[in-house]
Specification:
Elements (H helix, E strand, L loop, with lengths): L2 H9 L4 H4 L10 E3 L16 E5 L3 H12 L3 E6 L2 H9 L4 E4 L6 H9 L2 E6 L4 H9 L1 E9 L14 H6 L3 E4 L8 H10 L8 E6 L3 H6 L9 E6 L1
Parallel strand pairs: 2-3, 2-5, 3-4, 5-6, 6-7, 8-9
Antiparallel strand pairs: 1-7
Length: 226
Amino acid sequence: MSLHGVQEIVSLSLSAADAGSVPSARRGSRISATTTSSPALPVGVPSRDLSSSGCGGGGLSAILIASAVGARVIAVDISAEKVELARSFGASEGVNAKATPHVAREIHRICGGAHLSVDAVGHPRISRNSVKSLRKRGRHIQIGLTIAEERSVSVPMDMVIAWELELLGSHGIQSHRYADMLTWVKEQKIDLKRLVHRTVSLEESIDVLVNMDSFTGLGVTVIDEF
């Protein structure tokens, strides 16, 4: 997730003044139905809801950040085990996408639509559901990469225009910005160690990479032997 992605999640739950203390980041790709850069939510709205589609490393990171700054988080995943893990990371609600025919409809039932949605997987169906889960003037952040046969996503542009939604791309972070981001994480006392569920050697990492598409792992796998 880029620093801009972190900043968007943080600004979901902070006032404009507080959000100004978060390191600024270069704007990601933006599709907007409006010509203004005003926030999707007015300052002072008490309830701010984030839906995170995908509860792997990226999704859990978003959940950690959002819950740390006071957002209500709805975790979405096809694995019941990962949804429960997301709850332990601060998610207030969980949706098992495999057992839920209409994910976006369920999110609207729970909270009236998310103020901010995150696709941390990178799949056309998941991305569309994530956009459709938004309430009016909501924001979607695309973190998961859409590649190969799944690189093209059909966006519900009628909804984007009618509801004045914002779609933002979040792709990595410049190396010189890591210090700012990690300083903020430390100040917020966000425990990144909780993300690590497995450590492997460099040799073992080959099998991990080959099997990433199976989505069987929990949290983040870290290479600690070279």
